[in-house]
Amino acid sequence: MQTERLLPDQMGLARAAILLAGGAVVAIPTETVYGLAGDAKNGQAVARIYQAKGRPSFNPLIVHVPDLDTARTIADLSPEAERLAAAFWPGALTLVLPLRADAGIASLVTAGLPTVALRVPAHPVAQALLRLTGPLAAPSANASGRISPTSADHVLDPDGGLDGRIAAVLDAGSCPVGLESTIIGWPDGRATLLRPGGIPVEAIVDALGHPLDDHHADPAAPNAPGQLTSHYAPQAALRLNATDPAPGETHVAFGQAGPFTLSETGDLTQAAARLFDTLRRADREGRPIAVAPIPDHGLGAAINDRLRRAAAPRG
Ligand code: TXA
Ligand code: MG
User: Fold this and answer.
1) Residue 189 region by backbone torsions, left for phi larger than 0, else alpha for psi between -120 and 50, else beta
2) Residues with pLDDT less than 70, the chain
3) Of the residues 28, 55, 57, 59, which should be mutated to test ligand 1's pocket, given the most ligand atoms within 8 Å of the CB?
4) N or C: which end of the chain has fewer CB within 10 A?
5) What's residue 227's pLDDT?
């Protein structure tokens, strides 16, 4: 298959919508990372997403919708869910909610679970596309186990990317947030952090007015996000909290200049936006990577979560 690279103009959006309506998969920009989108109501299209990613099919997907009203046709939102949606949608927040019986979402999307993960993306191109299509199921547009893509070039990376495996990529440049969405669910009735991400936990706690349960990344739970311990893996070995990079290592810095710095000024938002691209570039040096300590608050908590996964033993 020849993968089309589409511009994010009227023509490109119309072409992407036609491909999606025909059951094809198209990589699309969101403010977090690029998603590998398929029609969430078409089981065959959803199967093609798993096929293109080489992803274990027990891992459920996020459904992207243009607005809160559409979200309410797919899932039941509790008062707490409504409060978070009002505070952070459109944006980098995914809510895991009870799936409505009449939602019409292909069962493969939720891997048969009674819940569905929903997100209203803020990216103008994702917004414009979602208004031409129905709800789009989309995991991050990387092959399973690889670093999430924050540009169309990452999606098509000849080394492990999806070129030739998907119908098209809608190219809108770099993703402004650069980290996947924060995922909140209510697995036992209490608001729980399922994955740290682009919205800092502190902001969610502020909006809720009470603390969150924290049980993300439970490797024993097959349906919890991030169940694959090594998930954001570069090829190279990765050393964390490296205050003293050794001569043979590629140094990913923070708070100082350098060819692979996440932020010269120690800005966590900038570091998040640069994280995955920097890991890809550092990986191409072909040497072990040493990453400077990153403060563990705000977006730093999500950055450290991704770095720990990237450093985890490979399965
Ligand atoms: O920012 C993002 O979230 C990006 C963009 C494309 O929206 N998407 C993304 O998707 O990161 P993915 O598939 O790489 O991660 C989605 C996570 C998975 O870890 C999955 O287990 C979890 O969401 N998830 C989906 N549905 C779920 C459900 N019903 N219950 C629990 N977790 C769920
Ligand atoms: Mg992913």
Assistant:
1) left
2) 56-58, 215-232, 315
3) 59
4) C
5) 44
- Considering the domain architecture, whether residues 167 and 38 belong to the same structural domain is answered as yes
Q: At which residue do the structure tokens 């509790």 appear?
A: 78
Q: Which atom of ligand 1 is nearest to the CA of 179?
A: 1
Q: Ligand 1, closest atom to CA 64?
A: 7
Type of residue numbered 252: V
Span from the CA of 256 to the centroid of ligand 1 (angstroms): 33
Residue 230 placed within a domain: no
| Domain that includes residue 97, residue range | 4-208
Are 144 and 242 contained in the same domain?
no
Q: How far apart are CA 5 and CA 26, in angstroms?
A: 10
The b-or-e profile of 240-268 (16+ CB within 10 A means b, else e) is bebeebeeebbbbbbbeeeebbbbeebeb
Query: Is residue 301 within 8 Å of residue 201, measured between CB atoms?
Result: yes
Give the residue among 1, 4, 39, 2 at the shortest CA–CA distance from 22.
Answer: 39
Name the residue with the closest Cα to ligand 1, atom 15.
139
Q: Kindly identify the ligand whose nearest atom is closest to the C-alpha of 226.
A: 1
Residues 185 and 255 in one domain: no
Domain C-terminal end among 162, 193, 208:
208
Kindly list the distances between the CA atom of residue 151 and the CA atoms of 24, 170, 205, 267, in Å, as whole numbers in the listed order: 20, 10, 30, 21
Q: Confirm whether 216 is domain-assigned.
A: no
The residue type of 146 is R
- pLDDT at position 145, please? 82
244 Cα to the center of ligand 2, angstroms: 31
